[in-house]
């Protein structure tokens, strides 16, 4: 059973990201403030939910949340600041878009940078422990999936409707065959034996 709040009695935002390990596309992040009495039997870490369950939960989260926001860092920004910073900064962008200022943040993982002097706690595997982080993981994942499915229409050779930009054998083979797109992360190892790209 997932817990409601880490800190009781204050508006608390859960934050998570999606797409950190991908070879192409942005990293997405979400921030969600849920009511303290929120409950949902299905809501859990987005990685253990089916795609259908995630898309079923999204409108419910958006309707029930006190405030929610989704933001991203694109592949060029990722190449500039590295993927860890891009993940954190995309969370900052999501937090900035919230209509209610949280008084505490809970972050999935063990790394974060302070945002707007709001106290925070990092929680390893937090998306399987706290409802607001799980809700953020669902929003980040579904909005990123939508983005990659739309991008697939322009670049169908890479199978992004299926792999969403992750380093599957199909995706790596497509890179070997067709080269890279403007949406690939040049700072990532895209080829076997790759040294670096001309930037």
Please give the CATH architecture. 2-Layer Sandwich
Number of domain units: 1
Shape: globular
The proportion of strand residues reads 15-25%
What is the topology, as strand order, of the major beta sheet? 3-2-1-4-5
CATH superfamily grouping:
Ribonuclease H-like superfamily/Ribonuclease H
What is the helix/strand order?
EEHEHHEEHHH
Report the major sheet: 5 strands, mixed
Kindly report how far apart the N and C termini lie: 48 Å
Tally the helices.
6
Number of strands: 5
Q: What does this entry look like structurally?
A:
With 199 residues, this protein is an alpha/beta fold. It is 36% helix and 15% strand. The protein has helices at 51-64, 75-81, 83-97, 131-152, 160-163, 169-178, and strands at 12-18, 27-33, 67-73, 104-108, 120-123. The protein has a 5-stranded mixed sheet.
In short:
The chain is of the alpha/beta class and 199 residues long. 36% of the residues lie in helices and 15% in strands.
Helices and strands, with pairings:
Blueprint: E1 12-18, E2 27-33, H1 51-64, E3 67-73, H2 75-81, H3 83-97, E4 104-108, E5 120-123, H4 131-152, H5 160-163, H6 169-178
Parallel strand pairs: 1-4, 4-5
Antiparallel strand pairs: 1-2, 2-3
Helix pairs in contact: 1-4, 2-3
Quick tags:
single chain, 199 residues, alpha/beta, Nucleotidyltransferase, domain 5, 5-stranded mixed β-sheet, 6 helices, globular, disordered C terminus
């Amino acid at each position: 059973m997932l817990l409601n709040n880490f800190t009781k009695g204050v508006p608390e935002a859960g934050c998570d990201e999606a797409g950190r390990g991908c070879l192409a596309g942005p990293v997405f992040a979400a921030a969600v403030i849920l009511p303290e009495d929120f409950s949902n039997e299905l809501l859990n870490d987005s990685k253990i939910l089916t795609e259908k369950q995630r898309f079923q939960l999204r409108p419910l989260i958006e309707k029930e949340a006190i405030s929610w926001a989704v933001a991203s860092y694109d592949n060029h920004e990722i190449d500039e600041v590295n993927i860890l910073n891009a993940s954190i900064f995309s969370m900052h962008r999501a937090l900035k878009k919230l209509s209610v200022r949280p008084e505490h943040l809970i972050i999935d993982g063990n790394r974060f940078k302070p945002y707007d002097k709001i106290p925070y706690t990092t929680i390893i595997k937090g998306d399987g422990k706290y409802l607001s982080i799980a809700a953020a993981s669902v929003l980040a994942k579904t909005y990123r999936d939508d983005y990659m499915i739309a991008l697939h229409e322009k670049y169908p050779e890479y199978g992004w409707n299926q792999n969403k930009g992750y380093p599957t054998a199909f995706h790596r083979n497509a890179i070997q065959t067709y080269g890279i797109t403007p949406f690939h992360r040049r700072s990532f190892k895209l080829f076997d034996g790759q040294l670096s790209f001309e930037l």
